[in-house]
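Sat 14:20. Reprocessing the chain from the morning session after the first attempt stalled halfway. Input below, unchanged.
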Amino acid sequence: MLPTVMHASRPSTRRLRRRGAAMLVVMMLLLIVTATASFAIHATSVELRSTGHARQRMQTRYLAEAALVSTMTMLEQSGPEPLGIALERSTSGAVVRRLAPEEPPMAASTGNHRVEITNFSGSAGVVGAPIDTTVGRESLGVGMGYTPTFVVDVNDGYSFTGAIAGQRADGLGTLQYLVATYTARGRTLPPSDTYSPTTASLAATLRRGTHESAMNARGIGISGPTRRR
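Finished this time. Tokens:
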């Protein structure tokens, strides 16, 4: 009796092609899913950063407006006489000042009275600064990591000589008002960044961080009435 020879069955070429096509489809699906997930993560990260930047800009705008109103209120409590004297003293023997890095230096003969956030502490009739920087109860939000600061410059002071109720209509009465321009510059920046508008040197003043937000507010303040000197 002749021995039986067993032959192992081999997959056909068509079956191998089907398996290769299925593997290719699975790899393409995995690639698409991975790319979609990566794009979603990146888009979410960009949206979170954009939201944080928008919040910082909005808070900086509110900071500048609060500084403007608070400075007007603080100076109004003391009356127009101290402000007029401060504007006159700032023109005598004053050094060249820089209001902000984006602005040219002021002339030494220009009257300017500067109010900073630290000037609110200890002033007569003022409880404190318009924004709280105490750790744990920051006005910008606990754990934000941004330090708020502002500078308010008062300049362009002149006497209002128009008609005042109860006074002479020709403007020659004994009372007058003091009109001045208030420019508030609000800044929110990390503690490592610097903002020093008092420096006249351009190189020393342009030291700004990449995470700083700046907003300005301007208004016209009328103080008085006061008697003519």
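The radius of gyration is 34 Å.
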